[in-house]
Write a sequence for this structure.
């Protein structure tokens, strides 16, 4: 029994070998499977897909509230359209999958992103300022022939995302949208999923191919490296000019559209949910996201099985009526201990254990995944589960926020910055420039420290002072330097 | 004004020129757009995408109730796997899109369907009968390089579907699943979407490539031709043998899995929703599916605008609180008549017109899309909308059922069958055989009548009698012959 247990459970600690922990937890908690053996393409199993479905709901709900409407665009893009915006083509064409067959004379690529599909349609759908803003989104799979090492969900060749493409009548409106996008990331990824982030206005050399500027969301992995989560881009008039997408403004004059794009990669955000909250026993899923919020494990002998199962079913249907996603694990082949172990590995927030003793006392044993506390709870008190769920998520959020805060430190010299990075943190640094002038210093950061200038804090006017520790010129910006995935 | 109206509205009658009606209604009601100009790939606009989202919800809800779990499989399949099952490869490889770049030595195709992805995973995930049944599904886009003429949503090269792939321990269990799949089509597509169908067990020569048998759902288009909607397939052990997917049965012996597949093509079912219910003024959407269930059109002058808009907003928020998908169309640029016209074209079930007169009487003018009746309704009675919605959908269903019933006629000679087909109906015919023996007669049906033997009625033991009208041999089957898309 014990041997079997250790085979099924994790045999590595999260903080000792994060990389191996991630591999084991995603496989053993049945999030994904890579055994199909196509580099960069991952199978997402029901437990992972269930979490993703819930993530989609929260994001889509928020986007719809903000006036976004759904669409379904083709998965392919013609070469003609894909190559219309010159910076975009430089950035993306080396990364696309081309189809072998020519479709009626057209060369087609699998979409890496869909600016070059939405912009020509904006041109057809929008005539005047009265049609604006136009805010569209789609759930989509996108494809990038990334040549670097792939890691399941972290870096792959196909990923699942939502992409929003919005058109406006002025730069001001478009910039407000960039802000709204950052707020959506804050409301959904941070407040609901419990994953804190640094909203980073990327340096000039690190923006989206074709954008005026990009704000990325940087999240910490347990090893202190950063992973980029949703980014939002002010495209300005670059794509609308490339596609001739004009509108008639309030003065009756033709003007090019102002566009933005926002792309929460749901399959990658799942990585941050897993790695932010999990522990040495496995996943810990936010109550809001877990496919099963409460699992019921009946404890029975052959003699009292019927009675215990009956009571468990009663409780299960009661919880379901309250809208709690509930699973009754009444499998007779497994011992209760094995079940506890499995559901802890899978990260289910609450577990109800119920046997004859509990039935007599009209109570259950109630286990909470994050604190690992077991308490006795009156059956009549089970209606409190949704509010306990809220507290559960609040605890995860607070824990993540505390860890996040402790991971940012000021660094004033190369030596200090190196030390900060080596201890798995991000350095806040007075830096020469995030325009072209800063490129050389950014290269020093990369070569000598293995780090990256991730950008300046969006929505904040952090005042720089002193000199850039790399070139000695006056510091114009406060940047954040970290190592990344 | 009138001129503008006729430009925007339909200028063709559904029963006079269905093909043109379909083109106009899908374009003018903003369901889709084909102007991206990639043959076989269609853009689905927000109005169409909103309907599709609702269709997904009903199907997924039903599938989950039946124990199906979500997954996300790669959009690509390796050549090695795609070509493992010999009949499958014959049926599908001429139809697939291959990728140009070789992915680490593997040739990859865009999935036309995913049996060859799920079966090798069943092999890894299923050890014994205790793991069965395993019922999985995914929302997916699939790709088929169909060389025939394409028509938006009807026949294309990319479509949006749900595919279910299930594994069982016995043929009996697998056949029960085929029945359950037919029931899902009945419950969702027929009862909820109001689209009746003939569940047709396909002849031997028309089954899914690799299946033991196929049950397709045939729906009528307004021109009397049939369109295939969800089909379900008993794969038997064909795929499990090709992939060596075994399990240990209750006697401890190895056995190949029994598998089934079910594929509701949501983007194609949308065609049947549009064509079954629409009329000469445009779409008529079921209350259950319409992105907007009630539209409010305020009628105001410059003088009373504020008052009327205020009351309209009150009503709007009241309806939203009742869970009714409501849109307030308070655009000042358009006249009420234009708005009525547009929302009728888009098929919104209910419209509330409200002006100063109505406000004084504490009522609204209430328009119902299918009957085109206008009545006065007390504002306090608006809470009845959800139940009026149910009645609305019931009327659509009854109307569709009546039309459906009248479209099936018995035909006993080639001449009679031809006449039935020529009048836009389906002929019920005593036919020699749906096995190989029947192939020649089926070819006669195709060549001389432009029709197809669609199959025998699933779930029914219709007794054949007499002789096959084509070869004169004793009739073993009652088949349905129709023309099709």
């Amino acid at each position: 029994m014990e041997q079997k247990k250790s085979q099924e459970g994790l045999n590595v600690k999260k903080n000792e070998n994060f990389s191996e922990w991630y591999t084991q937890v995603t496989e053993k908690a049945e999030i994904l499977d890579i055994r199909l053996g196509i580099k960069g393409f991952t199978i997402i199993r029901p437990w992972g897909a269930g979490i993703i479905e819930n993530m989609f709901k929260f994001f889509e709900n928020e986007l719809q509230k903000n006036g976004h409407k759904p669409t379904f665009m083709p998965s392919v893009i013609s070469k003609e359209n894909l190559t219309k915006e010159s910076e975009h083509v430089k950035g993306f064409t080396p990364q696309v999958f081309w189809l072998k067959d020519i479709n009626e004379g057209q060369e087609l690529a699998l979409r890496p992103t869909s600016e070059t599909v939405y912009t020509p349609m904006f041109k057809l759908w929008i005539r005047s300022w009265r049609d604006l803003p136009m805010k569209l989104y789609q759930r989509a799979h996108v494809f990038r022939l990334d040549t670097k090492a792939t890691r399941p969900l972290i870096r792959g060749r196909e990923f699942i995302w939502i992409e929003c493409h919005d058109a406006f009548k002025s730069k001001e409106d478009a910039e407000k949208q960039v802000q709204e996008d950052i707020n959506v990331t804050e409301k959904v990824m941070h407040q609901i999923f419990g994953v804190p982030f640094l909203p980073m206005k990327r340096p000039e050399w690190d923006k989206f191919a074709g954008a005026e500027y990009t704000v990325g969301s940087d999240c910490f992995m347990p090893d202190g490296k950063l992973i980029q989560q949703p980014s939002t881009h002010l495209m300005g008039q670059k794509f609308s000019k490339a596609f001739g997408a004009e509108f008639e403004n309030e003065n009756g004059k033709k003007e090019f559209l102002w566009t933005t794009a926002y792309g929460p990669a749901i399959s990658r955000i799942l990585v941050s949910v897993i790695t932010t909250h999990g522990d040495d026993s496995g996943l810990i899923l936010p109550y809001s996201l877990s496919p099963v919020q409460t699992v019921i494990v009946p404890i029975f002998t052959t003699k009292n099985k019927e009675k215990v199962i009956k009571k468990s079913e009663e409780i299960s249907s009661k919880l379901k009526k309250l809208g709690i996603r509930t699973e009754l694990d009444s499998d007779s082949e497994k011992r209760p201990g094995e079940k506890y172990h499995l559901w802890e590995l899978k990260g289910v927030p609450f577990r109800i254990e119920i046997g004859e003793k509990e039935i007599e006392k009209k109570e259950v044993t109630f286990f909470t995944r994050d604190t690992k506390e077991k308490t006795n709870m009156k059956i009549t008190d089970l209606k409190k589960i949704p509010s306990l769920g809220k507290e559960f998520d609040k605890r995860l959020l607070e824990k993540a926020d505390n860890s996040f805060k402790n991971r940012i430190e000021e660094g004033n010299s190369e030596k200090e910055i190196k030390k900060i990075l080596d201890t798995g943190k991000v350095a806040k640094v007075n830096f020469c420039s995030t325009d072209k002038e800063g490129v050389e210093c950014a290269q020093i950061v990369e070569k000598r420290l293995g780090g990256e200038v991730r950008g300046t804090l969006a929505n904040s006017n952090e005042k720089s002072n002193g000199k850039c520790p790399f070139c000695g010129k006056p510091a114009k910006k406060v940047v954040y330097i970290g190592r990344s995935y």
